[in-house]
Amino acid sequence: MNTNLPPSFQQLGQTEKTTLAVRKRMFGRAWPFRAPVRDGIVPLWPQLAQSHASTHESTVPCMNDEVATIWLNDESVRAAIHAEPRSVTGPWELCTQRISYDHDAGSMIPYHINLTSQGYRALIFSQAWTSSVGYKIVDEWRPWFTNSQVAG
């Protein structure tokens, strides 16, 4: 057991009777462990399955997206999660070629300088980052706790 993890994580899957398996995925698609994450088009299951099958004897595990497809194509759900209606974006699809992902959004320093100079308050977690913006440290660094557990 990894003792560096918070107690709540160390106890995942444990009960008084026995240790239970921790669920690794939910309905639909679980992002594959060690999947390549790069800027550009996100590799989806068909591409991952093809590259995996060409280098390994086993294949990527099956998935069923029926529940997610029905749920995410419901207009009331789309409105609740602030997604555009199907008339704008088309239906939700598990294996779409419409996802473009920028893994590195670049430095957030200009955004923070702009917002804090306008009077917005911000909680900044990095001492090196705070110094690079030119802010003074007004309170010594310490763990942040919630429910008696280190949270940051």
UniProtKB/TrEMBL annotation:
<dbReference type="InterPro" id="IPR001563">
    <property type="entry name" value="Peptidase_S10"/>
</dbReference>
<comment type="similarity">
    <text>Belongs to the peptidase S10 family.</text>
</comment>
<dbReference type="InterPro" id="IPR029058">
    <property type="entry name" value="AB_hydrolase_fold"/>
</dbReference>
<keyword id="KW-0645">Protease</keyword>
<keyword id="KW-0378">Hydrolase</keyword>
<protein>
    <submittedName>
        <fullName>Serine carboxypeptidase 1-like</fullName>
    </submittedName>
</protein>
<keyword id="KW-0121">Carboxypeptidase</keyword>
<dbReference type="GO" id="GO:0006508">
    <property type="term" value="P:proteolysis"/>
</dbReference>
<dbReference type="Pfam" id="PF00450">
    <property type="entry name" value="Peptidase_S10"/>
</dbReference>
<dbReference type="GO" id="GO:0004185">
    <property type="term" value="F:serine-type carboxypeptidase activity"/>
</dbReference>
